[in-house]
Write a structure and sequence with these properties.
This protein is an alpha/beta fold. The chain has six helices and eight strands.
């Protein structure tokens, strides 16, 4: 079963407007992502932070609207223990570098291969997943919408408050 199918409960929770209980959150796989220099990073390295993974491509029209919104989320919450990763599915290529330069994107850009994307079950982009500090999926958003971005901001704030209540960052 793919992670996307397992995340169905988090998609349903998005409509409910509340965070799923910690016991109901879905463990997200410890995927490998490469940066533009080819250095491999494992997702587990980001544990301890609220991590937002945005799967995107240069040819994706809605991604052009969503990435600047995610940059704003990173600017707002980055100093509070939030990491937003722009996970490109095109692969390191000149068009990715041109896209980043043309948009002024300052998010960390990492790349996953087609096999990883398929194993996750991500068959549409943009696709965004919000992970709590333990690496568990709290919410997933298929596609782009202003309402989803509003919810993402609220969920991020709630996760930060959740960590503060438990003595986290």
């Amino acid at each position: 079963m793919t992670v996307l199918l397992t995340l169905a409960s988090t998609l349903l929770a998005a409509a409910a407007g509340s965070l799923p209980a910690a016991s109901e959150r879905v463990e997200f796989p410890n995927i490998e992502m490469a940066d533009a220099a080819g250095q491999v990073h494992r997702l587990e390295a980001f544990r301890g932070t609220v991590t937002i993974l945005n799967f995107w491509a240069t040819w994706c029209g809605p991604c052009r609207y969503e990435l600047p919104e995610l940059q704003k989320v990173s600017n707002e919450f980055g100093g509070q223990g939030v990491v937003v990763l722009a996970v490109n599915v095109d692969g390191p290529a000149p068009q990715v570098e041109r896209f980043i330069a043309s948009t002024g994107l300052a998010l960390p850009v990492v790349f996953v291969d087609g096999r990883t994307q398929a194993e996750l079950g991500i068959d549409r982009i943009p696709f965004t997943v919000v992970l709590d500090r333990q690496g568990k999926a709290v919410r997933a958003y298929a596609g782009y919408s202003a309402a989803a971005m509003k919810d993402l901001r609220e969920v991020t704030g709630e996760l930060l408050r959740e960590g503060a209540k438990k003595g986290g960052k």
